[in-house]
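Preliminary data (for renewal application), flavin-adenine dinucleotide complex.
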Amino acid sequence: MAIVDTAVIGGGQAGLAVAWYLRRAGVEHVVLDDQPGPGGGWRGTWDSLRLFSPARYSSLPGWMMPPAKDGDYPTREEALGYLAAYEDRYEIPVLRPWPVSTVLPSPDPEFLEVQGARGGTVLARTVVSATGTWRCPRRPRLPGLERFGGTVLHSARYRSPAAHDLVGRRVLVVGGGNSGAQITAELSTVASSMWATREPPVFLPDDVDGRVLFHEATARYRAREAGEELPPPRSLGDIVMVPPVREARDRGALEARPMPETFTPQGARWSGGDEEALDAVILATGFRPALDHLQELGVLDPDGRVAVEGTRSVREPRLWLVGYGAWTGFASATLIGVGRSARATVEEVREFLEGNRIP
Ligand code: FAD
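Predicted structure:
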């Protein structure tokens, strides 16, 4: 049984950023990740995905992502390569595949017990959960979808039109965020694509990409620190006009319809009676935080989140959560934004360990 000061659960970008600050602070730690290799959620994204910020705005603490080879925006492969190289460069102690099944109070009150789904236990004085959202696709209940006879796929499993035999098919993409827009844009070049959204999609201005969103988040962070009020932020669901999305919009391929009234065995029907035959439906309907491993700690709220102050659990003072979204810090679900949450978290972890060290 291993004993550490800090166990970081999850080896994606958030886990690596936390590990970088732990290493700098000299805190003994281990990162437990359930995947067979580096990259976290980026391993599961579709082949053509491009980041919505240039490389220097997509960097973890300490080391800039190398510039994209083709155009401003790095590819998925480049993001994966960067995360793998980052792990090597800083010799981050990642154990994988090491799926954590549960975190429990240990009989020894100094520790939390981190149990592995494949056996093994780590006793940790503090735990940082950085398990992201990718493992938990959100699948809303859509009327009649269970009767639909074609392919139904969540964006979490979507790789490319060819991988799912969608070339030349009739495909409805559901969901008005960036995933829905990007997948519709890709399908529109090789298939008969349609797009349905609950609300009309909001396209950001063409010159607003991730770096603008990051500057805005920084301004909000500083204003909050100074006790000032700012107008509400742009929603992270608003669509960033990366080149393929811009090009599809200019072709008229991103005209969204309302949601169908019901799906049918052959397709979908809209209120007013319009029907479309469909071969496939892709659900680009988002994700929820992957927090099942915290169930037995008694910290999960009915909305599936954990009450936090900053990134620290209100109910379990030895637990921090990093990277999940705005509720765990400004821009903390982005490569560049997570560093700030990670730094603040590690400062608190270090203070806690110093105050509670048993000689
Ligand atoms: P993840 O990357 O999901 O890593 C968590 C890790 O923990 C995974 O390896 C997971 O398998 C593992 N894990 C989960 N549960 C357990 C467990 N119980 N035990 C052990 N391990 C576990 N961000 C940007 O910065 N720039 C972009 O351009 C950008 N574009 C995006 C485009 C789209 C369409 C989407 C959907 C997201 C985009 N993002 C972007 C966001 C980014 O992909 C995610 O927010 C990011 O991957 C989250 O990082 P993370 O480390 O918090 O979680």
